[in-house]
Amino acid sequence: xxxxxxxxxxxxxxxxxxxxxxxxxxxxxxxxxxxxxxxxxxxxxxxxxxxxxxxxxxxxxxxxxxxxxxxxxxxxxxxxxxxxxxxxxxxxxxxxxxxxxxxxxxxxxxxxxxxxxxxxxxxxxxxxxxxxxxxxxxxxxxxxxxxxxxxxxxxxxxxxxxxxxxxxxxxxxxxx
Length: 176
What we know:
The protein is of the alpha+beta class. The protein has helices at 27-34, 64-74, 81-90, 93-101, 105-112, 116-126, 143-157, 162-170, and strands at residues 3-7, 11-16, 19-24, 46-51, 56-61. Strand 2 (11-16) and strand 3 (19-24) form a beta hairpin. The protein is globular.
């Protein structure tokens, strides 16, 4: 949480208690943050810290769903954080998931401006493993929404299919 000091082409500077952090973001996130430059209102981002030998990079997302999708993209051979951000800047999460599920190699290739091989690898790695938990929700989620999202993610990571996870979660009582 912090105040937006500046927004650049690929990043924003967020002041958190007097320390400025450079946050890499996709076009949607940076566009949203642009509205708050210099405003006294705090913004809330979901952050992924990417550690390299020569740098600590922070990647910011408006929703936990976008962050989870970013982390899924990083699991694909040949996709690093910069390419994942380019993919997420080219289309929203729902559109990219649809491209993957429909095996639309041509559309995926355009998003990452790379060879067809990486798009095919994305489909091979991610098809049937991505869940969109209803409409996009910002950081102001209820504890129940977060718990259902975490449960869904855990079951998917254990290897259960999307269809089975969605069905099981839909049968749970809403007040659980």
